[in-house]
Amino acid sequence: GGSWAAWMPPAVSGLSGSCVSVPCRFGYPEELRPSSVQGLWYFGSPYPKNYPPVVARSRPGAVHESFAGRARLEGDPGVRDCSLLLGPLSPELAGRYYFRGDLGGYNQYSFSEHTTLEVLEEPVLEVPPEVVAGVPAELRCRVPDSCPRQRPRVSWEGAEDLPERSERESREDSNGAGSVVALLRFRPRRELGGHRVGCQVTLPNSSLAFAASVALDVQYEPQVLEVSGPPEALEGAEVELGCSAEGRPPPLLSWFRGPQVLREEPGVPSLRLHLPQVSPGDSGTYTCVAENRHGRHNRSLELHVAYAPRPPVLNGSLWVVAGDPVAVTCGALSHPAPILTVARGRRVVATAVYEPQVTLEVAAATPEDAGEYLCRAENQHGGSSLAFNITVEYPPILLPESRCTPVGEGARCVCAASAVPEPVVAFELPSHNVTVAEGHRDYALATPGGVPGPGTGPGTVTGVLTLRGTLEPRLAVLCLARNAHGTARQQLRFHHPAGLVWAKVGPVGAVVAFAVVIALVCYLSQSRRK
């Protein structure tokens, strides 16, 4: 039983100037039963025909000059031990080493199994892929421990001020290759970015010293340091908003307005947002967001676009019924908020200072409240205005010019009424049980122009009744005006202009008076003849 085979660590490492022991065992077929077993090590190739450098021999003989005094076959091939000791190490010794067994005669065998030597100038400092602020981190300093006469001693440098620091040391053996591992644990802070931490290795009975260090790359969630920009800008102006942030890795910077991304740029320390011509629609909250894989942070600012008041807008009914309350609101958009006034002529009837709207209120409307009003909005950037009319509906009011005046043998009666909506005007003759209205041949309608309100205007209607022929002594004429809100009725008085005596005494009295005058003239004429 048995076969040609060798066991050795596939890789070993050692510090330059130190040594390394390569443990090695080999086997061969049992039936060979050699009287003596020799061995040697080759460098770079297992095949003698390639003339590889001879590293070491179990029997006296020449070795390559590079290995003279620096390599020794420590094991006894007779007991199948092929262990090799190399040292002091230097970079040119790094490479592959092969063992060849010599059992005499043709029983020589180069094993394909080999070990690869790595010569280190410094310890291996293992740093985690990411060192994140606030998250515990662990550094490892790995030192080869394959030189039996020189056990390494490891210490840490730059670790004194690390928060929550702890140290531990252990020995690891991987496939026959030993190493000392020193562990340094701590909780990094963002301020430690760039701080150097290292491990130092010394060997006993030697002046050799090795060190490796690393500048900590502490990653941390981003922070927006500052947002800048004017709190207020005039409409049409050019505005630039600025944002600066820090983070590791450098964050993605974005400007938002609400959910909308206005601009973004990855891996930059600052980001500016340019608004070429601002309008009121640009007013609002602008947020700068910094984001990397460790977190997100934002800061906001408010931008107000100042502008002159826009044309006022009314809200409320401009038609009311007399006695009802009036509430008309006039509002105008502007920034800053305007001074709002409502005036009737030169009289200011409502005011609101730095408010978005003003309300004209009347507890109980009267016809006198009807007419034109002017709402004006002003701020330091300009002004605008809006004229509006309030119409007050009211029941008919009969006007003083309503009367009857004798004309010739008849009379002319006037019925004038003011109302909104316009009234229907008619005449009543109770003694005849007759109502005379528009459409009757003796009725005429006149509507003079003017301003709304009692007296004249669109709300004033004048009806004229012409009475022909002899008037009855006790004739009564009533003036009647009606609209949706009520009815007004009154008896018209007869108006007798001065100098018309017969108009005062009536038609019969006039005849009698005329006869008396004739008789008086005749009497005076006869008296003169005598």
UniProtKB/TrEMBL annotation:
<dbReference type="InterPro" id="IPR007110">
    <property type="entry name" value="Ig-like_dom"/>
</dbReference>
<dbReference type="InterPro" id="IPR003598">
    <property type="entry name" value="Ig_sub2"/>
</dbReference>
<dbReference type="InterPro" id="IPR013783">
    <property type="entry name" value="Ig-like_fold"/>
</dbReference>
<dbReference type="GO" id="GO:0033691">
    <property type="term" value="F:sialic acid binding"/>
</dbReference>
<feature type="domain" description="Ig-like">
    <location>
        <begin position="309"/>
        <end position="391"/>
    </location>
</feature>
<keyword id="KW-0812">Transmembrane</keyword>
<feature type="compositionally biased region" description="Basic and acidic residues">
    <location>
        <begin position="162"/>
        <end position="174"/>
    </location>
</feature>
<keyword id="KW-0430">Lectin</keyword>
<keyword id="KW-0130">Cell adhesion</keyword>
<keyword id="KW-0472">Membrane</keyword>
<feature type="region of interest" description="Disordered">
    <location>
        <begin position="145"/>
        <end position="176"/>
    </location>
</feature>
<feature type="transmembrane region" description="Helical">
    <location>
        <begin position="501"/>
        <end position="524"/>
    </location>
</feature>
<dbReference type="GO" id="GO:0005886">
    <property type="term" value="C:plasma membrane"/>
</dbReference>
<feature type="domain" description="Ig-like">
    <location>
        <begin position="222"/>
        <end position="304"/>
    </location>
</feature>
<keyword id="KW-1133">Transmembrane helix</keyword>
<dbReference type="GO" id="GO:0007155">
    <property type="term" value="P:cell adhesion"/>
</dbReference>
<dbReference type="InterPro" id="IPR051036">
    <property type="entry name" value="SIGLEC"/>
</dbReference>
<dbReference type="Pfam" id="PF13927">
    <property type="entry name" value="Ig_3"/>
</dbReference>
<comment type="similarity">
    <text>Belongs to the immunoglobulin superfamily. SIGLEC (sialic acid binding Ig-like lectin) family.</text>
</comment>
<dbReference type="GO" id="GO:0030246">
    <property type="term" value="F:carbohydrate binding"/>
</dbReference>
<protein>
    <submittedName>
        <fullName>SMP protein</fullName>
    </submittedName>
</protein>
<dbReference type="InterPro" id="IPR003599">
    <property type="entry name" value="Ig_sub"/>
</dbReference>
<dbReference type="InterPro" id="IPR036179">
    <property type="entry name" value="Ig-like_dom_sf"/>
</dbReference>
